[in-house]
Structure formats: C-alpha cells, structure tokens
Amino acid sequence: MKRFTPLITLAPAQPRRLFLRNGLAGLAALMAEPLISACSSDEADKAGNGSGGSGGNGPKLRSNLAAIGPLGPADSNGVRLPEGFTSRIVARNGTPPAPDKPYPWHIFPDGGDTYATPDGGWIYVSNSEMIPIDQVSGGVGALRFDASGEIVDAYPILTGSSTNCAGGKTQWNTWLSCEEVARGQVFECDVTGEKPAEPRPALGIFKHEAVALDPVNQHLYLSEDEGDGRFYRFTPNAKNPQGYADLSAGKLEVASRADDGKVTWHELPDPQFIGATPTRQQVAESTAFRGGEGLAYSAGVIFLSTKGDNRVWAYDIKTQTMTVLYDKATAANPVLSGVDNLAVTCCGDVLVAEDGDDMQVVAILADTTLKPLLQVEGHDGSEITGPAFDPSGTRLYFSSQRGPGNGTTFEVTGPFHLTA
What we know:
This protein is mainly β. Helix content is 6%, strand content 40%.
C-alpha cells in the first residue's frame, strides 16, 4: 500500500531502475525530506544534527533545554515533566495504534528515529528487541503521523530478524536496524514499508547495538553491546550518484585508544566472522569498551555511551581523539546512571536514556551541565529507549521497553527547541 507521495515526481520506470542500481539509498535519496535543521552554522546546514542527523531544509531551530525548569509530579500517564510540557501514549504492545489499521504495536520497543513526510507529517520507527520465540521475532515497526500529529498509519518495515536493539538514521533517510546477537547484522530499512529491508553484512557480523553516520565523510560508526565490545568505523568503497555511502561494500575498522585519547583505526581481517575468531577479538591492540550502547553525531563529534562503566564518550572526528564527556564515578552530580540510547538536539545537547535507575531522560548540555527532562514512574524493571524529536523539535518520542504490557511508546510535547 502506498503511504505517501514522493517529493520528486519520477517517470514510471525510474524508481525501479534506481532501486535496482543503488538499493534503498538511491530511491530514498529522491524521496528524502530532512528531519530537523541544526543551529545556523554552515557545517550544521551541510551535515545535519538532530536526533537522526539529517538537517538542511527544515525550520531553523535553537535548543531551549537550558531554560527548562525542574520536573514536576507525575501526570496521568505516570510521566514527570517540567512545567509547560505534556505527555500522551501513542502506542502499546499488542494494540493497533492507528485507527482501522490491523498492525499491532510490537513488544519490547527499543531504538528509534523520526522522518519528515511531504504532507507535513512524520514517521517514527521503532525496533523490537524480541528474541524469536514461537514464530514471533524482532524487527521494526513504524507510526505515521499527519501534519496535526494524529496517527494515521502503523505498519512493519522489517520482520523475521532477531533482537533488534538500537540502530541509526542515514542521511538519505533510511533506518539501519541492528541485531543484538552474537552473529547479528545490520538491516537497511525503507521507512515507508514499501521496499523490503536489505541486510548489510559489510557493516560487520557481531553483537550490534547502534550506528551513527558522519554525513561529511560518509563514514559509519558502530557500537557493540559486549562487556569487552569494540568501537568500529565503516568506510564505503564507493558512493552512489547522490554522493551517499554505498553500504554494499567497504572497509570495517576497529578503534584502539591510547592513554592520551588518540584513536588509531585498524582494519579487521574477518569482519563477516566467517572464521572462528569473533570480530571484537581479531585485532589484539584494539580497545575494549564496557558495553557499547547509544551513538549520535553532532557537528563533527560522535557520542558513544558505555553502560558497563556509566560513561558517555566524545570522539572528535577531525582530531581523532576520544575523551570522556560524562563519568558517573567522578561526576560532581552523578544523577545519570544506566546510560543507553542517545539523541542530540539541533545544537548538540546530548540526550541520554536510562536503562533502569530512575527511568529518566537526562540531557548533557553544551556546558556539560546535567538536566533531567522527564521521568517515568511505575515501570520497574524497564528502560527508556528510542528518544527522537519530530521535525519541529517540539515533540520527543521514546518508549518504556518492558513496563506494564511489555512496551509503551510515549510522545512528550513542549518547548525543547525554539525557532531561531
């Protein structure tokens, strides 16, 4: 079923020809509408920030997080919010979210992101961290909103995969969904659900967590959710005619971080894990990270969270140095714990979703101040997942993965961003 009209009208044979030649990237590039524009710097306009990393033609925004007040008491949905913010539940596991649409929302919603549509609406995609049991598997579901914010459709964009944890948005507006299993891979998904997802084995075979695109160099960075996981970089062998990375082939490297923070990249001999040695153990000098989790790109920096030691790292792409942005063990105000999925505002504030602890989304502001933005009560044993802003920057989507009913997805509306 066709869910929206492409931004560019094509001759009837052209979409198929582009798809066959360039895969999802070639077709999606012609359909792409940027998510959310960054602050008004040249690099931000070129490369894009926001929760998914695609800026350019949307409204100019500026972050308002520094002005947001403290959290108030929980609302009727069990969400504590600052004054001036409201919440609603947009999807629950097992229940169809869209009127007159049979697709039920998936169990264990995890990483996600948003995509603008030509009619002024947007799509929110969400992974399912389900281990296949009795013909029920993981995958990815999508919610489509109209320009007024009403849900008008819900549908799958990936089925038959396993334990889909986090992922990442591409500059050409596809979704990369990661399998968090020992021989997991990355799937590139068409967010409209009209084209089948494509496996991308060139991005490595390992216990994938998240992906972040450096849109300037067309490199992809990947995290690994193992106690001794690694930090990876993918460089494509070629770019498609639109100038975007061709994910079908390339070089996968693993990071080695020196004591001074300098990072050296080493090519992996067997990135597809064909032999007996797991990917993370193939380069002896590579650095182990204690449970790699969320990744996000902003203005030349890749942010990485590692849950095993409650740290958020910042990798400067130009200088190839990696520093610790937040460390609970040494922080003066260690309110952030169980660091997991990441998102960024238009201007580089880092949003960190907590796995457990007190179930908050906490922002690390540009001056490294910590600010809780919301808290979910009554969801013991769960985690916050999938934070992502809508195109206006005023709606934040996220899920409680294992709360009541094994999966609830929320929308919080308020002045996270202001028009610049």
